């Protein structure tokens, strides 16, 4: 070896040795965490479900990552290390199942879509007000389940002819921001920056002091069904099926119901 | 005679050269993956999609306005910081550097709390009819907040590097401070000013967090290229790659413009 290459080789060996000491490598930690990717609206409920699962399964640590269902789906598609995926609609999970990324997708909870408006600012008084000129409406983007549910609700309200002519067009003209998650839309209203937003009833409850809820009639509200599945892959956590069973079973259902989901 | 660059030769020279290649490879790998991991035939057609074109036009318009504002407002400030001697000069310099150290999304929250509807000034502005949040104005404001400090720093260094004796000479010859600034200080600092302007434009082009938070995300109105990539990523990777390629192309244009302008300015002085 020439003197120069010897120096490089020594440096590489030293760097490799140093890197292997960095915590987070699979060999270093006692047992890898169970990684759950969950829709933004599931955050609070799943934190408690995770804690309950850890209590009944000692030695297993649950790591929860929340975000817009669409964003999480893309991350899993690109190989993100998730063991379980819970999304705000069945279709998002089924699309991964069709691509061979997850096990069978199942529904495990339902929710209701509502409209929220700031508690301490003018905002919007009724659903018809959503079509009023100058109203600032925030909602999740069209690729996010909450955005699709909102679009479906607006279309249904338009078809019912109960909210004035060209309702859907007037409402769409009031959209000021397409957020990546339903929680971001909620925050716009909670901060008073937007006059109204389409969110889930459970999200509205989490910000109860800062928002007022306007219910959408049952006949016009879209059915909101959450889907869950185990992510497939060689290095997936062995307790993943147990977690899915926990969520879809009586223990998980009780926690979900306490947070306002139908289960 | 063989052209050689002055470089220390001897043991270890090649190792250092090899180590030097690590960063360029680190930059080149993801950028190549961006353009070629998905076959270009799949994303090239998406360059003409409405989402991509609207984001491109909006980004170019807002970043140019933001850069011009940064220059106009930054020149007097940089001059003051470079030449002035007053109590509090160091504090002023610190404030100017703050936006650089702040995470952009934090800057976005701060802008919202200041200029949003429920913010300090927001209420008064709304009454005056100026709806700032969720508008193009908000996009420009966010870009100026994040990018202008880069111009101020570059301009300050440019002014400071120039020989103050030349400015003093002009003053003794009877020129007003304004005339001195325009005919002596500016031309002397020109390469630094041009490079700073290009860097400012590049930073405005890549602005994401503050824009997302303060201006929101709406196609055609506030959805810049960076926000468009994020939105497209959720539904269609090919469109996302096309928009990302546009952003990359603009960045290259900004950098090439910076070098060309600086080189021309340098040649004029030669």
Question: Can you describe what's shown?
Answer:
The complex is a heterodimer of chains A (263) and B (270). In chain A, 40% of the residues lie in helices and 20% in strands. Chain A is α/β, with parallel strands linked by helices and 263 residues long. Chain A has a 5-stranded mixed β-sheet with strand order 2-1-3-10-4, with helices on both faces. A 5-stranded mixed β-sheet of chain A has the order 7-6-8-5-9, sandwiched between helices. In chain A, helix 2 packs antiparallel against helix 10 (250-258). Chain B is mainly α and 270 residues long. Chain B has helices spanning 13-20, 22-36, 40-43, 50-83, 89-101, 104-115, 122-127, 136-161, 164-172, 177-205, 209-215, 225-233, 237-269. In chain B, helix 6 packs parallel to helix 11 (209-215). The longest helix of chain B has 34 residues, at 50-83. The radius of gyration of chain B is 22 Å and the shape is globular. Chain A binds chain B through residues 2-5, 7-8, 11, 68, 70-71, 73-74, 121, 136, 138, 141-144, 175-180, 188, 191-193, and chain B through 11-15, 18-19, 112, 116-118, 133-134, 216-219, 222, 230-231, 233-235, 237.
How would a textbook summarize the main sheet of chain B? none
Quick one: overall form of chain A? elongated
Q: Helical segment tally of chain B?
A: 13
Give the low-pLDDT segments of chain B.
none
Distance between the termini of chain B: 27 Å
Q: Unreliable segments of chain A (pLDDT under 50, ≥5 consecutive)?
A: 24-28
Count of individual beta strands of chain B = 0
Tags for this model:
heterodimer, A: 263 residues, 5-stranded mixed β-sheet, 10 helices, elongated, B: 270 residues, mainly alpha, 76% helix, globular
Itemize the secondary structure elements and their pairings.
The complex is a heterodimer of chains A (263) and B (270).
Chain A: H1 3-20, E1 34-39, H2 43-56, E2 62-67, H3 69-77, E3 84-87, H4 90-98, E4 106-111, E5 113-118, E6 137-140, H5 145-160, H6 167-173, E7 175-179, H7 182-190, E8 196-200, H8 201-206, E9 211-214, E10 224-230, H9 240-248, H10 250-258
Parallel strand pairs in A: 1-2, 1-3, 6-7, 6-8
Antiparallel strand pairs in A: 3-10, 4-10, 5-8, 5-9
Helix pairs in contact in A: 2-10
Chain B: H1 13-20, H2 22-36, H3 40-43, H4 50-83, H5 89-101, H6 104-115, H7 122-127, H8 136-161, H9 164-172, H10 177-205, H11 209-215, H12 225-233, H13 237-269
Helix pairs in contact in B: 4-8, 4-10, 4-12, 4-13, 5-8, 6-11, 8-10, 8-11, 9-10, 10-13, 12-13
